[in-house]
Write a sequence for this structure.
DNA sequence: CAGATATATAACTTGACGGTTATATAATCA
DNA sequence: TGATTATATAACCGTCAAGTTATATATCTG
């Protein structure tokens, strides 16, 4: 079994989850979107499966991967104990959060620039 | 710079944060509590520092480590997009969460059983 | 100053991770 | 049936993480 923390540590897997949040996807679709080889994607999907963060529905040779957000509750629960501390000082943090979001967005752009050959 | 995801992936570091949530602690205190060598703890603290999750106050030879929860906001933000999905199906998940908590508690017990030699 | 105390850093080992290419498996299609 | 399509698995490689022991650094104490 793989913990939700282990599943989320890799940015590619977070991207996959974000993509699956929009809609179920085929493996090949994810390959097209993520600039990683097909076996690489399959390996990530295996990790997500073993963390129970996705479920699969087979349809002929194709596999539809679908989000299963339940395990995120554990993370949310852990975070909960910190949330009061956070909201206490909330004013100080607005700035911080905006910075982080900018950084993340930047990185996602980088990911996307798959050389189109 | 170390991401909050990287910082949280290690269970020992999550325990350290939990301990610092209660109160600031000395390195030696954490060593006593965690069954890892002093350099091991110092390395974890360095990671937490580079993730901006702790701050240090020096007092003679001692170092007080204190929680800095701000970076957790980024994680909370990421989780936010999934929270609606989660609450939608909330009834199905109670059971799941309880299981996870039991597992975690079990593991923490294991951590604590430092052979007292 | 010499020793003791508290912590950090260096160097090393081991194992796991994330990527790759090559291949196996399984279903569809002609 | 043989070729094609879609995905998973195997084998391998380089990097890094987490632990260790040994040592450096810095402060206090006698």
């Amino acid at each position: 079994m793989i913990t939700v923390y282990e599943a989320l540590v890799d940015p590619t897997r977070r991207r996959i989850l974000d993509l699956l949040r929009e809609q179920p996807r085929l493996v090949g679709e994810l390959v097209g979107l993520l600039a990683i080889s097909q076996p690489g994607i399959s390996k990530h999907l295996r990790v997500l499966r073993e963390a129970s963060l996705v479920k699969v529905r087979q349809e002929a040779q194709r596999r539809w991967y679908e989000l299963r957000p339940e395990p995120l509750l554990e993370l949310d629960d852990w975070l909960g104990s910190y949330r009061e501390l956070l909201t206490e000082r909330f004013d100080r943090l607005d700035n911080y959060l905006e910075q982080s979001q900018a950084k993340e967005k930047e990185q996602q752009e980088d990911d996307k620039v798959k050389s189109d050959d």
Observations:
- Residues 26-28, 38-39, 41-43, 45-46, 60-63 of chain B lie near DNA strand C (CB under 10 Å from a C1').
- Residues 37 and 52 of chain B are 23 Å apart (CA to CA).
- The first helix of chain B runs from residue 4 to 8.
